[in-house]
Write a structure and sequence with these properties.
Elements (H helix, E strand, L loop, with lengths): L5 H19 L11 H9 L3 H6 L9 H6 L1
């Protein structure tokens, strides 16, 4: 079940790419690899931390559309 909405997903993907780019350009620090986390959660649309905290940034789907998929 997805819990990350559209704007949140886009921001996560952008932040992830920027952080990973820091490994190759700029300070060239290995800390940039932490960008894999927001990039992956943005691409997948699911954030485990949101689930633990009970947060959602995507709209709820109605029950009939969930049954069809």
């Amino acid at each position: 079940m997805k819990n990350v909405g559209g704007i949140d997903r886009a921001l996560r993907i952008i932040v992830g790419i920027v952080l990973i780019a820091l490994v190759f350009v700029g300070p060239k620090t290995p800390w940039g690899w932490i960008g894999i986390i927001p990039l992956a959660t943005g691409l997948i649309g699911f954030c485990p931390a949101y689930r633990l905290l009970g947060l959602r940034t995507c709209p709820l789907q109605n029950k009939t559309s969930q049954e069809e998929t």
